[in-house]
Write a structure and sequence with these properties.
The complex is a heterodimer of chains A (402) and B (51). Chain A has 402 residues and is an alpha/beta fold. Chain A is built from 12 helices and 24 strands. Chain A has helices at 56-64, 82-85, 88-95, 104-113, 183-198, 202-215, 233-248, 265-279, 294-301, 320-331, 351-361, 379-401, and strands spanning 4-7, 10-12, 15-17, 22-23, 27-28, 33-35, 38-41, 45-48, 74-76, 99-102, 121-123, 129-131, 136-141, 151-155, 160-164, 221-224, 255-260, 284-288, 306-311, 313-314, 317-318, 338-345, 365-366, 371-374. In chain A, strands 1-2-7-8-9-10-11 form a 7-stranded mixed sheet. In chain A, strands 17, 18, 19, 22, 23 and 24 form a 6-stranded parallel sheet that branches. Chain A has a 5-stranded mixed sheet with strand order 12-13-14-15-16, with no helix packed on it. In chain A, strand 8, helix 1 and strand 9 form a beta-alpha-beta unit. At the A-B interface, loops of A face loops of B.
């Protein structure tokens, strides 16, 4: 891997992680990830963000191919989660920067995570500008995109937006630019990332996009801290339009059936619910939570307007993977969903009602009564499942047309 | 009455106020200045809901 120049004297100097699959310990990353950071050479040499601690050597190797790392004057920390700041203590020791910039909330995280004694930290406010020679940088706070400390750095003359976690995707690759990537892989990775990380802050995304528009900021390059960089006018428009679309969460005519079965009864019910959707012409995806991760459910929700939950009742509640799924989905605050719940039971059968309540708490339009069947569903039970699937399909179709 | 920020979950407790930002203990949510924002995430007053 080599450093890559995005524009004159602006370089990618990050680290590529082909191994990672468990991103932040809550989301799968089937394509791996990257920790992007950027070096700008001007009268001042500035490093924007760093990498995860284990990527330190790779980052320093990349910087060294451009300049002596000790020549770095400023470090900008747009966000302090350790995948961007883990290498910070070592690079600070190595290059002894003149200044380290972060937001007010960034300072709180930085001093909490690291021993910052003697570090020349300077807190920048929203809209603050910094001159580094021929270039001026504007810092824009983007609080809750996706942490309180988040900010982005805009290189005014080059029209480069270093966007931190916004517009990221988890893709490990030998290439650095979105226009070098298979389109469907890029889009599916953008969706998985947005739906598992950024989704609850969709109202902030909408406000931020409007603010950028109102400020009239021209952008040639969007350089996020994970994944590929958007460098063509088409791609910059594509990623901004995609974010506007993700944030809007308009209903889509497709259903996710996420289920967890114990003795195969709930699996049979799930298939019958799917048949009901199919009979009404609504595509679906079946996700067995014993095989798939709850973050896969969110990735599929990016293309779906209905979430149907199925679980056997075990000890008076849904099974554990379904409980995890509910917690994960609920925290991400999906909007505009149609929902339904079903499951088998051995002696009590509380799970469908509890799942329906969870969906209602997510403000989903819950269709039908929670459907429970004893142990091994019979033909008449499966007929009820097909009807439930059909009911969801009709409600979803109406919602999509409305 | 306590108020919750819908964006980040911060709770404004009038008994505590927001001393870091010059809001004394005992200040009701309704009496916070219009330009007061959530000390955690910067959300405006409109983003808050009574608990």
């Amino acid at each position: 891997m080599r450093p890559v120049e995005l524009k004159k004297n602006i370089y990618w100097v990050g680290a590529v992680d082909f191994d990672i699959r468990n991103f932040h310990h809550y989301s799968r990353a089937p394509e791996g990830s990257t920790y992007n950071c950027y070096l700008v050479r001007d009268e001042k040499t500035v490093l924007f963000d760093t990498v995860d601690a284990h990527g330190y050597s790779e980052m320093v190797k990349h910087i060294s191919e451009i300049t002596d790392p000790e020549s770095i004057d400023y470090i900008v920390c747009n966000h302090l989660e350790p995948d961007h700041s883990g290498a910070l203590p070592r690079i600070v020791r190595l290059c002894k920067p003149e200044k380290i910039f972060c937001s007010a909330m960034g300072l709180k995280s930085m001093t909490n995570l690291y021993d910052t004694t003697g570090w020349p930290i300077e807190v920048v406010k929203d809209g603050a500008r910094l001159n580094i020679g021929k270039r001026n940088i504007t810092f824009l706070e983007t609080r809750m995109l996706h942490w309180p400390d988040s900010m982005v750095s805009y290189l005014e003359e080059d029209r480069v937006l270093i966007s931190n976690d916004a517009f990221g995707q988890n893709i490990a690759s030998s290439y650095r630019f979105a226009d070098e990537c298979d389109r469907s892989l890029l889009l599916s990775s953008m969706k998985r990332y947005y739906y598992n990380i950024v989704l609850p802050y969709s109202p902030q995304v909408i406000k931020t996009l409007k603010r950028v528009q109102d400020l009239g900021i021209a952008i040639d390059v969007i350089a996020p801290d994970h994944g590929l960089i958007f460098r063509t006018p088409e791609d910059v428009k594509f990623v901004i339009d995609s974010y506007a679309e993700f944030a809007a969460q308009k209903p889509k005519l497709r259903a996710v059936i996420a289920y967890e079965s114990m003795w195969n009864g709930t699996a049979k019910m799930a298939s019958a619910v799917a048949d009901g959707l199919e009979a009404e012409g609504v595509p679906y995806v079946l996700i067995n939570l014993q095989q798939s991760h709850c973050s896969d459910v969110m990735a599929e929700l990016a293309d779906s307007g209905a979430l149907i939950l199925g679980s056997a009742t075990r000890n008076n509640m849904p099974m554990v993977n379904m409980m995890a799924c509910i917690a994960h989905v609920k925290g991400l605050r999906p909007q505009n969903l149609v929902g339904a719940a079903f499951g088998t039971y051995g002696w009590s059968g509380e799970a469908p009602k509890m799942m329906a309540e969870a969906l209602a708490e997510m403000k989903a339009e819950v269709v039908g009564e929670p459907l429970k069947c004893y142990f091994n569903p019979k033909a008449e039970d499966l007929a009820k499942c097909r009807e439930l699937g059909a009911q969801v399909a009709r409600a979803l179709r109406e919602k999509c047309q409305g | 009455m306590k108020h919750i920020c819908n964006v980040c979950g911060y709770e404004y407790d009038p008994a505590v106020g927001d001393p870091d930002n010059g809001i004394a203990a005992g200040t009701a949510f309704e009496d916070l200045p219009d330009d007061w924002t959530c000390p955690v995430c910067g959300a405006s007053k409109e983003e808050f809901e009574a608990e």
